[in-house]
Amino acid sequence: MKKILLFSIVVIAGLAIAAYFLFFKEPVFKATNGYLVNLNNKGVIIEGYDPVAYFTDNKPLKGSEQFTANYEGATYWFASAEHAELFKKDPKKYAPQYGAFCGYAVSIGKLRPVDPLIYQIEDGRLILQHTQEAYDLFNKDLKESTAKADTNWPVIVSDHVGKPVQYDKPAQPTASSR
Prior knowledge:
The chain is 42% helix and 18% strand. The chain is of the alpha+beta class. It has one domain (29-169). A two-stranded antiparallel sheet has the order 1-6. A two-stranded antiparallel ribbon has the order 2-3. The protein has a two-stranded antiparallel sheet with strand order 4-5. Mean pLDDT is 85; it is low at 18-28.
């Protein structure tokens, strides 16, 4: 009886640990070669969404492993060969700002993941956000938020290059942001 109970506890603990690593633990990755980019476990940016589609189709489209390009330490997937070629001709035009980390988080000096479906194109720049709340906070004063993110980004990159990188804890809204 004790063996069955002990075995059951070990199995449950093992399953709990596996679930934590699969579903709750945020990734740790390394910023290298001077680039800090938000990649999945395959080294793909924007969770495989096509960055060109945000501009040409005015919506996010999932890319394919069949159409790829590498830029600044990240692999990009595209919905078509045409989109891949457009990107290769002018990657700075289509690459997401702030390494595909949340624009709002960067504006307050943090790193957070993104939801590829929450985005905007501001002054020809693709800016992704983590949540709708982050989008709303960023857009309360869009020009100021963008300026802060632009100022913070080089500092964040220099602080993380060559070191293990983990997402920061979610920001807590301040009384002035409510």
